[in-house]
Design goal:
By secondary structure, the chain is an all-alpha fold. It is 57% helix and 0% strand. The chain is globular. One of its GO terms (molecular function) is clathrin binding.
């Protein structure tokens, strides 16, 4: 945030939004690193960006700058915001691709709702036996090389 151009409000807005995210979710060193930028953030709060049509583009910038400045000045608010955000992100489930991860999410988030769709899906999954897999060799199926060379 070394440069502050009042005509380029979007860049300032994006920078302040990223700083807000880093303060709340990032390492604690961000808090110390941006303490000397308070004056610049105050300038963003006090500046108005009104375009030729009379629209105040700076309202979003002022709102985010106010929150960032409060995070930098009020240590208790800073700690509360970090804790609130951490509590919200604890329940998020990060899964991979495929149907197996879909079933896991559904079973964990069902919470007593109608589970007919879920149980039907699980029934279909359970009906498929390992013996039916094309790579399994048994008395009914003979294993074939899928990528055999045709020489």
């Amino acid at each position: 945030m070394a440069m502050f151009d009042r005509r380029e409000w979007r860049g300032t807005y994006n920078t302040l939004t990223m700083l807000n995210h880093l303060l709340v979710n990032g390492p604690l060193s961000v808090f110390n690193e941006f303490q000397h930028e308070r004056e610049l953030i105050e300038d963003a709060i006090n500046t108005e960006w009104i375009d030729e049509r009379g629209f105040d583009c700076g309202l979003k910038v002022r709102n985010v700058a106010g929150k960032v400045l409060r995070l930098l000045e009020d240590g208790m608010f800073f700690k509360d915001e970090r804790e609130r955000n951490r509590k919200q992100s604890i329940g998020r489930i990060i899964t991979g691709f495929g149907n197996s991860s879909f079933v896991d999410i559904q079973s964990e988030t069902n919470n007593g709702r109608d589970s007919s769709v879920l149980s039907d899906h699980q029934t279909c999954e359970n009906d498929r036996a390992v013996d039916d897999h094309p790579f399994v060799e048994d008395e009914h199926n003979t294993a074939k090389l899928l990528l055999s060379s045709s020489t």
